[in-house]
Amino acid sequence: MDSRSSVERSSVEPFALRDVPAFDHECDVLVAGFGCAGAAAASEAARAGADVLVLERASGAGGSSAQSGGELYLGGGTAIQKACGFDDDPDTMFAYLEAALGPHADTGKLRLYCDGSVEHFEWLRECGVPFNPTFYDKPTWMPLSDEGLMWLGENSWPYNTLARPVPRGHRPAASGFGGGILMERLAAAALAAGAAAHTDTLATNLVLADDGRVAGAVARKYGKAVFYRARTAVILTTGGFVDNEEMLADHAPVLLGHGKVSDGLDDGSGIRMAAAVGAATRRMGVVEIALTALPAMVCRGMLVDGLGRRFVNEDVYPGHWSVHAVRHQPGPYWTIIDEEGFEDVPEPDRWGLRPRYVTETLAELEASLGMPPGSLETTVETYNRHAERGEDPYFHKDPKWLRPLKPPFAAIDPRAGFFGGGAGQGGSGVAGFTLGGLRTTADGEVLNGSGVPVPGLFAAGRAASGMHGEGYVSGTSLGDGTFFGRRAGRAAARTS
C-alpha cells in the first residue's frame, strides 16, 4: 500500500521509516504546534544551532495561548516586582506554588521553575514581550487595564500563612487579554532565531525507525500527505485534550458538559500519537476549572452553593473557589451581594454583569433561587455576626472584605457569563482545560511505561504533564509551557 494514501486513515499509529517513499522536508528538530511552548522550543533549538521546522495546523501561530489572558506566573525577584516595591526570592515562590499547585505538585520541575524564574522573565523580555512596571491591587480574573503585576492568591488564607505574600502575576502590556501580544512576540522571536514555520499543516503520525527512534512525522496539508524527516528529534507541543470529548470521558469527565478554554483545536492529537509509540501519560485527570463569577463581586459578598452555604474564603484565587464549587459542592452556585457591595465595585470591574434576582428579604431570595427555606438566612446571619467583629472563623476571609450584608440583597448567576448575556449564557457557567499529558523529564524527554526515554521524542506545554499537582494558578500554564518548552528545545538540539 502506498504510504501517501494510507495517511488518510484516522489511526495515529506510527509509520515505519523504511516504508516512507520519500521525505518532502528534512530538518534537525521538528516542532509540532506553534503555541507558546512550541515557539519557546523552536527559539531555543534554533539558537543552539539546529535547523528547525515548526508545523502548525492553523493558518498562523498562536493556538490557545494567543486566546488566553496572557498572564505568566513569574517571581523570585523580577525587575517588575522590584519596580513595584516587592521583595521576592525563589524559596518563597516555591513555598506558595507547592501549596497552590498541590496537593502532589511535581516538586522537581517546580524547583527548577522557581530557581530559573528571573532568568526566564528576562528571556521573555529579550523576545520582545513588554511588561509595564505597574501593579493592579484588586481581586480579579484579569484586569481590563495594562498593569504588569497582579495578585494570584498569594495574599489570601491559607497561603499567606505558608509563605510571605508577594504578587507574581506578570502581564504583557495590553488592556485585557494579553495572549495575542505574547504570542506575536514569541512567534516573531522563533522565526528571527532561524526557525521556519509550515502553517495549515496538521501532524497526524510519527515516523519510527527500526531501532525505536522517532525519526520524523507525517502531516496533512490541504488533504495531502506531507512527510517530514527529523534528523535529531521531534518535539510535541500540540496542546491538551479539552476539545476531545472521548478523551475527556476517559480521563477528565469533570469537564464534560462545560465550556472549553481553548482555541477549539486542543484535541489531544499529540498525546495520542506519542502513546501509539509507547509513551506514558501522567495525571490525565488534572484540570483547570473556572467558574464565571466575578472576584470583585464575590469578595464583597459571598459565594454559596445550591443549598445556600458558603464553602471557601471568597478572596482566594478564583480558580480555587471554582474547583471547590464544581468538584465538591452541589450547584447551582450564586454570588450573593448587597446594594452597598455592588455599588462599591468599579464599573469596569463589573464586566457588564447585573444581578439576576434582587429582593428585600433573604427569604424571598431563597425562594427565587430554589434553596431550602432558612438556608441562606442562616448563612448570612452567621456571616454578619462574625463580620461585625471583623472575623471569619470558618473560612478566614481577609478582614478588609468583611462587612455585614444589608438589604436589599442580590444574586448573580455565573451561568450568565462575564458579559451579562454574552459568553456563558445558557451554559453551565463553568469552563476549563486539561493539565495532564505525556510523562516527561525536566528536559522534555518523553518517557515510556518503564520510565525510559522514547528516543528522539520530546514534549512540552499542555501536551505534557508539567509541574502541576491537583491545583492551578493563572499564569502557570503559559509559564510552564514556555519554561519547559525552552528546555526541550535546547535538549532536542543536543540529541544525536
TrEMBL record:
Would the keyword Cytoplasm be found if you checked this record's keyword annotation? no
Residue ranges annotated as transmembrane are: none
Q: Which UniProt keywords apply?
A: FAD, Flavoprotein, Oxidoreductase
Q: Name the domain of life this protein comes from.
A: Bacteria
- Spell out the molecular function terms from Gene Ontology: steroid dehydrogenase activity, acting on the CH-CH group of donors
Which species expresses this protein natively?
A: Actinomadura chibensis
Q: What is this protein called?
A: FAD-dependent oxidoreductase
- Gene3D superfamilies in the record, alphabetically? FAD/NAD(P)-binding domain, Succinate dehydrogenase/fumarate reductase flavoprotein, catalytic domain
- Short name of one Pfam family for this protein? FAD_binding_2
FAD-dependent oxidoreductase 2 FAD-binding domain segment(s): 28-477
Which cofactor is essential here?
FAD
Its BP terms in the Gene Ontology are: steroid metabolic process
